[in-house]
Design goal:
This protein is mostly helical and 132 residues long. The protein is 79% helix and 0% strand. It is built from 5 helices and no strands. The radius of gyration is 19 Å and the shape is elongated.
Length: 132
Amino acid sequence: MYAALLASNSYSALATAVLLLHALFILWVIFGALLVRSRPILRWLHIASLVWGILTELLPWPCPLTLLENYLEARAGVEPYQGGFLLHYLDRLVYPDISPTVLTVAGVFVCALNLALYARQIWSALLIRSAK
């Protein structure tokens, strides 16, 4: 009995950690451009994250973090929107109660806007180089 409770709590803690990681990834996709100014490696990582965000919104690919969360929650015996305080509210942050279409359009728009800003930066840099 104690071992089962300990395992359940461990899976629940891991599910919460993955959910937090998922929320951080979403924040990275939305606001990452603000953090990568003079760091080319981070810039390309953010661009790859944006492309991944668009692809997972538009194509029927499951997000690996969502799959891992679901697996860990199932192992912990937690159903969606039940469980501890942190898990409950992180779930609502990562998976808001908004129509899937609105969520997809908003996600693609945010990613495309970020990519457009990167394209503008690259274009400006190319124009400056060609003017020299």
